[in-house]
């Protein structure tokens, strides 16, 4: 030991030199070596313990029961789940499975009932290949992130966005058609339909019809339109796209009523059927044609007995409320009547009436162009006014109105993992 060390500890080392050791070029006492060795073992033991603790923390999630992990995951946003796929091979397989996607879809659908959200579409003003998708939550605090996608083939001429089907949209234009899931960024181009091939690139708005995106046992596109130029090809033509066959096919039995064409009157789907307005008949009334997506048969629905103004029939609109078809009708005194189709589909029932002139709606836009988008909690309704570009929430109980956005390209929406259809 050095003199300084001896002075510090109040003793002098008298052990022979042969019992001393060399440590990093310094003479060290044997007991000191035992102390150093013991401290090394202690430190190494602490490191091993910390390493074991970190390993335990890293593997903690996978030690949870599978059903608990799944119950947590089905409540998470799609963007978070996509990130989780890279953290664990087991998680990746679970999240990619079809059964998990279906469970996540069911949970998102139930959440939508009281916390509805929309998808706002923003096509690029510069190029025809880019579209921004902006989810917008009407109520609740669930975070939603927007997505910008580039579509190589672009969208020329007119463009139409279908209703959401399990978080998927069908984007149609005069010369291209694509199915997309904005949440997962997946999309797939489809072959052109006969309607797109035969029609010119640019059509007047009153001649445009669009395909309905629906799901029976499998997903389908149903495109009903007026035959052209005229019969003997039949009054209407219907094409159905099968995703498994990746091909369009024509139906032989189609309605003998011409379809009302309008860029704002897209077909509506509810309760396993697709619905279209017909052109005015001899009594200046518009009828409704239904198509069963399972049997692929058409039928004419019963008439609605209301005091609507025949001059305002062109401004009737459809929506889906609680998976039932509803029609908004403007009466001769400008009231807004909501008629719902009964589950038996043999009769209509009036469920709401809005006294238009006594509400702030009359200050925002003209009476003829208001269209229902969605309804929730049995008392709140989202209305769109395509001409003024306003989206408003109307309270059916209090009659109050709240403007939430100035945008017309919107659809009810919820996220899903469904892709690769």
TrEMBL record:
Residues 58-104 form the F-box domain. InterPro entries: F-box-assoc_dom_typ1, F-box-assoc_interact_dom, F-box-like_dom_sf, F-box_dom, Gal_Oxase/kelch_b-propeller, Kelch-typ_b-propeller, SCF_F-box_component. CDD domains: F-box_AtFBW1-like. SUPFAM superfamilies: F-box domain (SSF81383), Galactose oxidase, central domain (SSF50965). It holds the Pfam family FBA_1. It comes from the Eukaryota. Signal peptide: none annotated. PANTHER family: BNACNNG10540D PROTEIN, F-BOX PROTEIN CPR30-LIKE. This is F-box domain-containing protein.
């Amino acid at each position: 030991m050095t003199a300084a060390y001896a002075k510090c500890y109040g003793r002098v080392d008298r052990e022979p030199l042969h019992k001393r050791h060399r440590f990093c070029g310094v003479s060290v006492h044997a007991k000191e070596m035992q102390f150093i060795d013991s401290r090394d073992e202690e430190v190494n033991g602490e490191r091993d313990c910390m390493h074991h603790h970190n390993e335990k923390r890293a593997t903690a999630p996978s030690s949870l029961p599978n059903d608990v992990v799944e119950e947590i995951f089905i409540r998470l946003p799609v963007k978070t789940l996509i990130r989780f796929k890279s953290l664990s091979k087991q998680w990746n397989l679970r999240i990619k499975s079809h059964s998990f996607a279906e469970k996540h879809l069911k949970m998102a659908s139930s959440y939508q009932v009281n916390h509805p959200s929309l998808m706002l579409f923003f096509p690029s003003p510069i190029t025809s290949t880019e579209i921004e998708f902006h989810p917008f939550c009407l109520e609740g605090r669930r975070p939603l992130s927007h997505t910008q996608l580039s579509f190589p083939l672009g969208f020329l001429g007119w463009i139409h966005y279908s209703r959401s089907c399990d978080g998927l949209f069908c984007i149609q234009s005069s010369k291209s058609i694509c199915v997309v899931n904005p949440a997962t960024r997946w999309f797939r181009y489809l072959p052109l339909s006969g309607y797109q091939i035969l029609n010119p690139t640019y059509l007047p708005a009153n001649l445009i019809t669009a395909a309905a995106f629906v799901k029976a046992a499998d997903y389908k596109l149903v495109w009903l339109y007026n035959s052209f130029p005229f019969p003997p090809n039949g009054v209407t033509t219907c094409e159905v796209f099968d995703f498994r066959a990746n091909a369009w096919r024509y139906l032989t039995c189609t309605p003998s009523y011409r379809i009302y064409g309008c860029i704002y009157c897209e077909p509506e789907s509810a309760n396993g059927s697709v619905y279209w307005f017909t052109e005015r008949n001899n009594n200046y009334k518009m009828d409704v044609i239904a198509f069963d997506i399972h049997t692929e048969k058409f039928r004419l629905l019963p008439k609605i007995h209301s005091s609507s103004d025949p001059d305002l029939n062109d401004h009737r609109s459809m929506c889906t409320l609680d998976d039932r078809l509803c029609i908004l009708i403007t009466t001769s005194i400008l009231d807004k009547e909501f008629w719902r189709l009964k589950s038996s589909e043999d009769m209509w029932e009036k469920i709401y009436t809005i006294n238009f002139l006594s509400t702030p709606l009359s200050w925002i836009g003209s009476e003829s162009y208001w269209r229902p988008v969605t309804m929730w909690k049995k008392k709140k309704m989202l209305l769109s006014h395509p001409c003024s570009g306003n989206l408003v929430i109307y309270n059916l109980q209090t009659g109050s109105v709240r403007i939430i956005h100035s945008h017309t390209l919107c659809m009810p929406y919820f996220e899903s993992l469904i892709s690769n259809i």
